[in-house]
Design goal:
The complex is a heterodimer of chains A (425) and B (412). Chain A is of the alpha+beta class. Chain A has 15 helices and 11 strands. Chain A folds into 2 domains: 199 residues, Metalloenzyme, LuxS/M16 peptidase-like (Cytochrome Bc1 Complex, Chain A, domain 1), CATH 3.30.830; 180 residues, 2-Layer Sandwich (Cytochrome Bc1 Complex, Chain A, domain 1). Chain A starts with 23 loop residues before the first strand and ends with a strand. Chain B is 43% helix and 19% strand. In chain B, helix 9 crosses helix 15, helix 10 packs antiparallel against helix 11 and helix 11 packs antiparallel against helix 15. Classes of the chains: A alpha+beta (425), B alpha+beta (412).
Chain lengths: 425, 412
C-alpha cells in the first residue's frame, strides 16, 4: 500500500553542480566587443546592441527615452512604416529600450533572416532623422498614456518612492511629467543621437542558434562604424528626501492602497549584495517568503507582496511593495515591520534556510534553460563590471551562508528607522 | 516537430511525455477540464477561487508549496473560461516529489476552513487590483455581458462580482472538487529530462490508485446568432475616451480560426499593421489601437479597442475605424501582406517553443482540445490560409449585425 504521507526521497538542490556556459567573444574591426552564446534547439537568435545612451546622459527629461523610441521612426531612406514593415515581413522583432545608463536595440529573429535585417539596424543607428511629425505624434500619445497611468496608485507610488530615495534630479529618482514631453525638440534628440549612438559606446550580445559566419556578418555591418568600444561611466549624487513617511490620496474612491517601503542599499560590488539575495528571499523574495506567508496566506490582506533589491549599476535600494485593501494598509505596514523584527531577533531555522537554498539553486538551474537566459546572466556580469566568477561565487554564497550571518545582515539593513514609507490610495 | 508519447491509465488519466535531454529540469503539468464557463451563473468566479484552494493542503500533505520548494521547484497555475492548468518545474532528479504532490491533491483536498476564508480575501484583493482599482478595469465585464446573451462566456474568470466570491461555501468547494478534479477529467504532461518508462512507473504508482471519477458531461447553452448590432456606454472617471468593438467569431477547432487569427495580425500586429498606420499615424485619431481575439474553445470574440486622441469625437473615430474594416472587406489583402503575417506567425511559434514549460502547457491544452498533435500541425494550417479565405472571413465577421460596441466616456 502506497504511503502518501511519506515524501519521496529528494536530492537537495544544493548538491547540484551548476554550470554557466562560457561565452565566445569576438572583437570587430573598430574594437566593438561581441559576446556570444551558441546554444538551443530552435533556429532563432537574439542580438542586443547596448549603447551608453540612457537617462543618465540626457540633458533634459525624456530625451534619452524619446531618442531610443524614435530610432525606428524614420531614416533618410525609410519611413517609420517601412522600417516596421521590413522587420515584420521577416517575422522579426526589433525593440528599443531605454534604461538608466544604457539604451538597447534588440533583435529577435529566425536565424536565417539575420543577413537581411542587420543592414536596417545599421541604418537606424547611423542614419535616423527624427522627423518632426513623428515626434509630435509620440508626444501626444505619450502624454495620453501618462494621464491614464497617473490614475493608478501603484504607478504614482513607484515614481514617488524612487524620488524620495535618490532625489528628483538623480537618474534613478527622476520621472517624466507631461510638460517634459511638451518641451522636447528634434534638435535635442539629434544631439543625443549624435553623441551617444553615432559616436557612443556600444557592446553587443548575441545568443541562440548562431550562423557559422556570424562574426563576418556582424563585422560587415558594424565593424567600420564610428561607435566606440567599452563602457561609458557616469555617477550622480544621491539627494534623498528628509521626510520619511508619506500618505497620499490619488483617487478618493480608490479601494486599495499601494504600499512602498524602501531604503538605500549598496551596489553589486559590496559584499552584502550577494548575501542580501538570500536574506531577501526569506523576507519577501518568493511565494514561500515570510511576507507572503503572513500577509497574503495567513491574513489575506493582499493578492501579492514582494521585496527586492532594485536592479541598478550604482548604489541602489531595497524595496517592499504591495497593493492591499484600503482598510488594511496600516495593518499591512505593521506586519512588514514585524517581519523585519523577527529576522533581526531570531535565527532562521535550518529547515527554512535549506528550503530557501534549494529553492534558489533550483531556480537558477531552471533559469539556465536556453541561450537567451544564459546570455542574460553574462550581460549582467559584464555590464556591472563583475568578475567572471561572480556566478559561481553567488552559488557558493547560497549554499554556505549561515543563519547567524543572515541575522547580522538583518540587523544592519532591516531597521525601520532607515526606511521610507509611502501609501498611495 | 515536437515529439511526445501518450498512454492512458486505467482510471482514464491521459499522460503525455515529451523528452528534452538538453535541460536538467522537468516540468509536470496537470490540466483539468473545467473553467469559468462551467460555473453556476449565481456563483461565478468559483473555478478561479478553487484554483487558489488547490494550494491550501491536500488530504495527506499539509502544504503543497513547501515540499516543492525544498526539492528546488517552482509552480503556478492559471484559470481561464475554458480550463484550469497547474504546472511546476523542478530538477529532473526530484521529479517524484511533483508526482507525490500533484497526485495527492487530485486524490483529495484537506478542505480547510481557514484556507477558504483567507483565499476568498486574497481573490477579492486580486479582483480589486485588476478590475476595480484601475482605469477602464470594468470594460470586459460589460463587453462580455453585451456580446453574450446566453453562453457562460458572459462572465469573466475572476467572477461577475465580489459578492459571488465572498459567498463561496465549503460545500461548494467539495462539490466542485468531486465533480471536476478527477483523473477522467484531467491530462498530465511530463516534459524535460525524463524517460517514458520512468514516467509510466511513477504515473501508475501515484496517479493509478486514484478513483476515476465520472466523466463531466458539458452541456452549455449555445449562444444564438446575433441578429442586430448592440451598443452600450460607460461614463467614468478616466482621462480619455475609449472605443471598444467586438464581433463573434468561430470556435477554436474550426478551420476559420487560423484565418481569424491572421486577420487580427493584419489589423494590429505591429508598427506596420493597418489600424496603427491609418488611425494612429496618418489620421491621428487614436493614441493606441489594438485588435485581438479571445482564442477560446467555444465561439469567441474578435475585439478592437483604442483610446481616442483628446478632442476627437467618438463618431469620427468610429467612422474612420470602420472605413479601414470596409477597405479590408472590399479589397482584401496583397500576397505580400499575407506572407508577412504568415512569417510573423512562424517566428512567433518558434519563439514560443523555446521553453520546455511552454511546450508542456501547449501539449496539455491541445490534448484537452482533443488531440495533442495539433501542436505540430498549426503552422501548416496557417501557411494554407489564402487571401480569398481572408476576404470571405472578414466579410463574415465584420457584419454590422454581428457587432457589439461600447463607448467609454471620460467624465473629466
Amino acid at each position: 500500500m502506497l504511503n502518501r504521507t511519506n515524501p519521496p526521497h529528494i536530492k537537495d538542490a544544493i548538491e547540484f553542480e551548476l554550470e554557466l556556459k562560457p561565452y565566445e567573444k569576438f572583437v570587430l574591426d573598430n574594437g566593438i566587443e561581441v559576446y556570444a552564446i551558441d546554444a538551443g534547439a530552435q533556429d532563432v537568435l537574439q542580438m542586443e546592441m547596448v549603447f551608453y545612451a540612457g537617462n543618465s546622459f540626457e540633458k533634459s527629461n525624456a530625451v534619452a527615452a524619446t531618442t531610443s523610441y524614435m530610432l525606428k521612426n524614420g531614416t533618410s531612406s525609410k519611413s517609420a512604416f517601412e522600417l516596421n514593415e521590413h522587420f515584420e515581413f521577416y517575422g522579426a522583432y526589433c525593440n528599443r529600450t531605454c534604461q538608466n545608463e544604457t539604451a538597447s536595440i534588440s533583435l529577435h529573429t529566425l536565424s536565417k533572416h539575420l543577413p537581411v535585417l542587420l543592414p536596417v539596424i545599421k541604418e537606424m543607428i547611423t542614419d535616423s532623422i527624427f522627423p518632426e511629425e513623428e515626434l509630435s505624434i509620440y508626444i501626444q500619445n505619450s502624454k495620453q498614456k501618462l494621464s491614464v497611468s497617473l490614475k493608478k496608485c501603484d504607478f504614482v507610488a513607484n515614481r514617488l518612492i524612487d524620488a524620495y530615495l535618490f532625489g528628483e534630479n538623480h537618474p534613478y529618482g527622476k520621472y517624466i511629467a507631461s510638460a517634459d514631453y511638451d518641451a522636447l525638440t528634434t534638435a535635442q534628440l539629434k544631439e543625443h543621437f549624435q553623441q551617444y549612438y553615432l559616436n557612443g559606446h556600444c557592446i553587443i550580445f548575441v545568443a541562440g542558434k548562431l550562423p557559422v559566419d556570424l562574426f563576418k556578418v556582424v563585422n560587415e555591418q558594424f565593424g567600420h562604424l564610428t561607435i566606440k568600444p567599452g563602457k561609458q561611466q557616469i555617477t550622480n549624487n544621491i539627494l534623498p528626501a528628509v521626510t520619511k513617511k508619506y500618505r497620499l490620496t490619488n483617487d478618493p474612491k480608490g479601494v486599495q492602497g499601494a504600499i512602498r517601503i524602501a531604503r538605500d542599499f549598496p551596489n553589486r560590488h559590496h559584499p552584502d549584495f550577494m548575501k542580501m539575495m538570500v536574506l531577501n528571499t526569506v523576507f519577501g523574495g518568493f511565494f514561500g517568503s515570510r511576507l507572503m506567508s503572513n500577509i497574503r496566506e495567513e491574513k489575506g490582506y493582499t493578492y501579492g507582496i514582494h521585496s527586492y533589491v532594485q536592479n541598478h549599476f550604482h548604489d541602489t535600494a531595497l524595496l517592499i511593495s504591495t497593493e492591499s485593501g484600503k482598510d488594511v494598509t496600516d495593518a499591512t505596514v505593521e506586519e512588514i515591520y514585524k517581519e523585519m523584527e523577527i529576522l533581526r531577533e531570531e535565527l532562521i531555522d535550518e529547515e527554512e534556510l535549506l528550503l530557501v537554498r534549494n529553492y534558489l539553486i533550483g531556480n537558477i538551474l531552471g533559469d539556465l534553460d536556453g541561450p537567451f537566459h544564459i546570455i542574460g546572466r553574462w550581460k549582467n556580469i559584464i555590464l556591472n563590471n563583475l568578475k567572471e566568477e561572480y556566478f559561481y561565487d553567488s552559488i557558493k554564497m547560497i549554499k554556505t551562508i549561515s543563519a547567524e550571518e543572515l541575522k547580522t545582515l538583518a540587523n544592519k539593513y532591516l531597521q525601520p528607522a532607515d526606511f521610507y514609507e509611502l501609501i498611495v490610495i | 516537430m515536437i515529439q511526445y508519447e501518450k498512454f492512458t491509465l486505467n482510471n482514464g488519466l491521459r499522460v503525455l511525455v515529451h523528452k528534452d535531454k538538453s535541460t536538467p529540469m522537468a516540468v509536470v503539468n496537470v490540466i483539468y477540464d473545467v473553467g469559468a464557463k462551467d460555473e453556476n451563473p449565481d456563483k461565478t468566479g468559483f473555478a478561479h477561487l478553487f484554483e487558489h484552494l488547490m494550494f491550501g493542503g491536500s488530504i495527506n500533505i499539509p502544504s503543497y508549496d513547501e515540499p516543492l520548494q525544498v526539492a528546488g521547484g517552482e509552480n503556478n497555475a492559471f484559470t481561464t473560461n475554458d480550463l484550469t492548468n497547474y504546472y511546476c518545474q523542478l530538477p529532473a532528479e526530484n521529479i517524484e516529489t511533483a508526482f507525490w504532490l500533484e497526485s495527492d491533491r487530485m486524490l483529495n483536498l484537506a478542505f480547510d476552513v481557514k484556507s477558504l476564508d483567507v483565499q476568498r480575501k486574497v481573490v477579492c484583493e486580486e479582483f480589486k487590483e485588476h478590475y476595480i482599482n484601475k482605469p477602464y478595469g470594468d470594460v470586459w465585464h460589460k463587453l462580455r455581458e453585451l456580446a453574450y446573451s446566453r453562453h457562460p462566456y458572459r462572465w469573466m474568470t475572476i467572477g461577475k462580482e465580489l459578492k459571488h466570491v465572498e459567498d463561496a461555501t465549503l460545500q461548494d468547494v467539495k462539490d466542485f472538487f468531486f465533480k471536476h478534479y478527477t483523473p477522467i477529467n484531467a491530462v498530465l504532461v511530463v516534459a524535460g529530462n525524463v524517460t517514458t518508462d520512468a514516467v509510466k512507473l511513477l504515473a501508475e504508482k501515484w496517479f493509478g490508485p486514484i478513483p476515476s471519477g465520472a466523466k463531466y458531461q458539458r452541456n452549455l447553452p449555445v449562444e444564438p446568432v446575433q441578429t442586430a448590432p448592440k451598443f452600450t456606454e460607460i461614463k467614468a472617471n478616466v482621462p480619455i475616451d475609449a472605443l471598444y468593438k467586438c464581433w463573434h467569431i468561430c470556435s477554436r477547432l474550426d478551420n476559420r480560426y487560423y484565418v481569424t487569427d491572421l486577420i487580427t495580425e493584419i489589423l494590429s500586429g505591429g508598427g506596420s499593421s493597418r489600424l496603427f498606420q491609418a488611425l494612429v499615424k496618418e489620421k491621428q485619431l487614436f493614441s493606441n489601437i489594438d485588435c485581438s481575439h479571445s482564442g477560446s474553445t467555444d465561439a469567441g470574440l474578435l475585439s478592437i479597442e483604442g483610446k481616442l486622441v483628446k478632442g476627437v469625437s467618438m463618431k469620427d473615430a468610429e467612422t474612420a475605424l470602420m472605413e479601414e474594416i470596409y477597405t479590408l472587406q472590399q479589397k482584401g489583402i496583397s500576397e505580400k501582406e499575407l506572407q508577412k503575417v504568415k512569417n510573423k506567425t512562424e517566428s512567433m511559434l518558434a519563439f514560443e517553443d523555446m521553453s520546455v514549460m511552454n511546450r508542456a502547457t501547449n501539449l496539455a491544452m491541445y490534448e484537452l482540445l482533443g488531440d495533442a498533435n495539433l501542436i505540430n500541425t498549426e503552422l501548416d494550417k496557417y501557411q494554407a490560409v489564402t487571401s480569398e479565405e481572408l476576404l470571405n472571413e472578414s466579410r463574415a465577421i465584420f457584419n454590422e449585425n454581428n457587432c457589439n460596441t461600447l463607448y467609454y466616456y471620460s467624465t473629466n
